[in-house]
Amino acid sequence: MSEQLLQQQANTIRFLAADMVQRANSGHPGAPMGLADIATVLSTHLNISPKNSKWLNRDRLVFSGGHATGLVYSLLHLWGFDVSIEDMKNFRQSGSKTPGHPEFGHTHGVEITTGPLGQGIANAVGFAMAAKYAQNVLGSNVINHKVFCLCGDGDLQEGISYEACSTAGHQKLDNLVIIYDSNNITIEGDTSIAWDEDVVKRFQAMNFEVIEIDGHNFQEIDYAITFAKKASKPVLIKANTAIGKGAATLEGSHHTHGAPLGDEEIKASKIKAGFNPDETFFVSSEVKAAFDKTQVGQTLENAWNESLSAEIKDKIAQLQNPDFDSIVYPDFSETKKIATRDSNHKILNAIAQSLPGFIGGSADLAPSNKTELLGMGDFPKGKNIHFGIKEHAMAAICNAMNLYGLFRVFSATFFVFSDYLKPAARIAALANIPQHFVWTHDSIGVGEDGPTHQPIEHLTQFRALPNFYVFRPADATENVESWKVALKLNAPSAFVCSRQGLDTLKPTKDYGDVSNGGYLIKKREGATVTIMASGSELMLALKTGCFLEEEGILANIVSVPCYDLLVEQDEAYINTVIDKNTKVFALEAARALEYYKFADVVIGMESFGASGPADELFKEFGFTIEAVKQKIKENL
User: Fold this and answer.
1) Residue 82 has pLDDT above 70, yes or no
2) Which one is catalytic: 301, 391, 478, 594?
3) pLDDT band at residue 511, thresholds of 50, 70 and 90?
4) Torsion angles phi and psi, residue 445, rounded to 5
5) In the 8-state DSSP scheme, what is residue 58?
6) Where do the domains of the chain lie, and which CATH numbers do they carry?
């Protein structure tokens, strides 16, 4: 392909991006213009199929910098995905296919919602890890695609990028290519005002192959990508670029980062490049033909499909359509007492034994989280992933692994450390990613480790997250029932489990419907009180109800294994669970402010916890039968 045509292609991307931002009067033209040359050459290397954006062996391209949105939509249109010129004209407008940052499931061809800077790098690592595991399950002749990630200075300044790339280097992900748009510009100006590390040495220290190139030299770009595709390590291509490349007077200026260039600047830039200054959103037939991936992608996909044996097709179908009803769950009916982290361990193993695509791991806490899949080996050949102490990257990696198309992946840490991964959990909720989060040591029951390790506000913050389902089972059997529900949700779920042993509440599995989030576990005719509780506090509620009954106060007890599901129920169901004629109390060793939606009085934590034996702390903070009974009587 001639350099003249390549330059025309790159300039087409530049002006599509600039026109989008100008028309919307909002957005980021600088990064798309600076990356246009790289994107043009990268397009010649990508194996994708716009007619089937879910083709399993396609190359994955992750745009870690969401501010390069103009580049994303330009490429998707030029490649042949369902993004039209009209869609680009509606950039950043309400209801359009082209929102301000790319969203998975909203715009055809977007691989994943990356969100805040840095997460996209971890997502790319996740796709590469999923591909490695897929190679071991299906064969390297079946899965042999690459994962490319475009990132910038901001991505590499975020801590998650170090966590993720450290993992990539350790796992020797030779299918991962990160292209670093090094333009030395952030919103406040030159990167040197806050950042001056040697990125090349940093990545070399993490076991990456590093190539440094001129990001506007087509031959150097092509050589680097060709080399990277054959490397035996993950590769970082450090591409030195000018932000706003091609802008008539603003090339290299931080002013191109997050604001429209202006009509006159765009016209002058188009004249300089030989484009018609009065024409917007222009794509020549020659440029469209050079970019279009529709036919070549279909040919590649067809050839791949024809190469698959019947056995491999069956394996893929089994992975893509897991039979959740085939899981043989453990029976806890004869178990008198067990921590929900321990019952969860048995449940995880039962699921992993039944579902070939169920894998996961912990942030260096498997012995405490009880998440080891026994006898199932270590990643990449086995099902146990050792993430190390990298919670944020772990969760973002698992987001991508869950979107790869074959696997259901869980991650795990202490509940208090969910703070470190909240951004990735939020993206999972936003993008309907069915990641399962296992969070143990759920309350002041952590005990001696003290308030720094006691998650008193975390239930409230995650219950406030839309499309995110927090399960806090009261015992082992409720834990089983909760997993049955969570596996079939098209959304992320969290299992918040106890460190301490919890009594098994019933000898059978005859529970109310956990899928409704809450149900009556004890009903007393003529009750004047309803006590709602979850987790370890449900037994306390049941016992308190018995002592109240001795004093003539009748209390219904409601178990709330999943508050998020309960609030989704209609009023008719809520009224069957919570008698409107009773005074409603919520009991939880946490802030529990969300219960005011149902409760008249919340008995929860009003401070941080403390360091001491768990039993003493429950007594100190008022979670005893006598204290709860007295609180209820005072409020009647």
Assistant:
1) yes
2) 391
3) low
4) -65, -10
5) P
6) 3-299 (3.40.50.970), 324-503 (3.40.50.970), 516-634 (3.40.50.920)
